Amino acid sequence: MRTYELLYIIPSKFTDKESSEIINQIEAVLKGEKINILESKPIGKKTLAYPIKHCHFGICGLIKFEGEEKVIKNINDKLRLMPEIIRYQILKYIETQTPKIIKVQKEEKIKSVSKTKKEQPLAGEIKKPAETKKEKIKLEELDKKLEEILKG
After folding, report:
1. Is 47 a member of any domain?
2. How far is it, in rounded angstroms, from Cα 17 to Cα 141?
3. Residue 122 CB partners (closer than 8 Å, separation 6+)
């Protein structure tokens, strides 16, 4: 017994009641092949990347199940004949562990200073334009100027 996932898309033209009936039909196809359904969850209404059979929106769902490899062909054949399903895909389910986050410390970059050549940025560095010195203006001066503008 292997674990599989069935991802399906139903056109959004169906009502909630009709779409739930279609989902029940899909699950009935799986149960008819003596498959153990582990999890069935709706993903929701999604905008399709491109129109499929003149539909721009679809209701997506995911069913996780266990079954024999030989019955997958029968399930494919039965789902292909259902006109209510726009697209579907059956994948082998592989459980993965979450990756550990590793902190990488930045290495200090050493600049070589040459008197004859201009200083060039190292790979990955962005050379900043030369900063100009700006006069610092006090807040009191700004308040006085603001009052003059508002009075005049």
Report:
1. yes
2. 70
3. 109, 111
SS3 37: strand
Residue 44's domain comprises 2-92
In a domain, 40, yes or no: yes
Q: Does residue 141 form part of some domain?
A: no
Domain count for the chain, please give it.
1
Cα(35)–Cα(66) distance, integer angstroms: 6
Phi, psi of 26 (to 5 degrees): -65, -45
Q: CATH no. for residue 62?
A: 3.30.70.60
pTM over 0.90: no
pLDDT in tens, 79-125: 999 999 999 999 998 877 666 666 555 554 444 444 445 555 555 56
At 129, is the pLDDT very low, low, confident or very high (cuts 50, 70, 90)? Answer: low
Q: In what order do the strands lie in the sheet with 87-92?
A: 36-52, 55-67, 2-11, 87-92
- Reading the block at residue 42, the tokens are 């709706």
Q: Which of 43, 49, 32 is nearest to 10 (CA)?
A: 43
Which residues make beta-bridge pairs with 64? Answer: 5, 39
